[in-house]
Amino acid sequence: MIYGNGIDIQEIRKIQKAQEKRESFAKRILTVNELAIFEKYKGNRKYEFLAGRFSAKEAFSKAYGTGIGKKVGFQDIEILNDSQTGRPEIVKFPGDNKLQAKISISHSGEYVVTEVILEKLTWQTKMKKFLIKQK
């Protein structure tokens, strides 16, 4: 059952300017694990990554129904890429024991657009997640 859907679009250049103005910008947006990935990138790819994570976290907060603020902060959400497929996955988020998150991040030219779909977990899905963790 769908709990919420969130979509966000960001201009990569605006995120780049925010980072160039304040180096602490990325530290406010990214978790420690995300920051380690960000620091490995060079040039435009670095800013595409930052804009993608910023946009994805905004989209998550919209799907969750709170927006970024008092209930959900940027550090409450962590997005990492699957080691085998490279697909982005939201690995940490508020309500992760009750919800399942699906994410899409797309870059095109000067923009990044993201979508997050949150689904309520059924007992079958909870059992499947549990069994996967046991492997």
Automatic annotation (TrEMBL):
Instruction: Tell me the compartments it is located in.
Output: Cytoplasm
**Single GO molecular function:** holo-[acyl-carrier-protein] synthase activity
This enzyme's EC code(s): 2.7.8.7
User: What reaction gets catalysed by this protein?
Assistant: apo-[ACP] + CoA = holo-[ACP] + adenosine 3',5'-bisphosphate + H(+)
Key word Transferase present in the record?
Answer: yes
Q: Which residues bind Mg(2+)?
A: D8, E58
Q: Looking at its record, which EC class is this enzyme?
A: transferase
Q: Which Pfam families match?
A: ACPS
The superkingdom listed in its UniProt entry is Bacteria
Which key words tag this protein in UniProt?
Answer: Cytoplasm, Fatty acid biosynthesis, Fatty acid metabolism, Lipid biosynthesis, Lipid metabolism, Magnesium, Metal-binding, Transferase
Q: What is its main location?
A: cytoplasm
What are the record's GO terms for cellular component? cytoplasm
- Reported cofactor(s): Mg(2+)
Per the database record, which ranges form the 4'-phosphopantetheinyl transferase domain? 6-114
One record GO biological process: fatty acid biosynthetic process
Describe the task this protein carries out. Answer: Transfers the 4'-phosphopantetheine moiety from coenzyme A to a Ser of acyl-carrier-protein.
Q: Which family does it belong to?
A: Belongs to the P-Pant transferase superfamily. AcpS family.
Classification via HAMAP family: AcpS
Name of the protein described by the UniProt record: Holo-[acyl-carrier-protein] synthase
Chain's gene name: acpS
